[in-house]
Amino acid sequence: MWAAETGETCYNIFMSKMDEIVSLCKRRGFIFPGSDIYGGMAGTWDFGPLGVLLKNNLRDIWWNYWVDKRDDMFGVDAAIIMNPITWEASGHTATFADPLIECNDCHSRFRADKLVDGYSESITTEEFKAINPKCPNCGKANWGTIRKFNMMFATHVGAVLPEDENGSEEDKALARRSIAYLRPETAQGIFTNYKNVVDTIYPSVPFGLCQFGKSFRNEISPRDYILRDRECSQFEIEYFVKPETWETEFEKIRQEYISFLTDKLGLDKAKLNELEVPEEDRAFYSKRTIDVMYSYPNGEEELMGIAYRTDYDLSNVAKASGKNMEYRDKNTGETFVPHVIEPSMGLERAILAILSKAYTEDEINGEKRVLLKLPEALAPYKFCVSPLLKNKPELVEKAKFVYNKLKEKYTFVTWDDSGNIGKRYRKQDEIGTPKCVVIDFDTLEDDTVTVRDRDTAEQVRVKIEEL
Ligand SMILES: [Zn+2]
Question: 141 C-alpha vs ligand 1 centroid, how far in Å?
Answer without folding.
Answer: 7
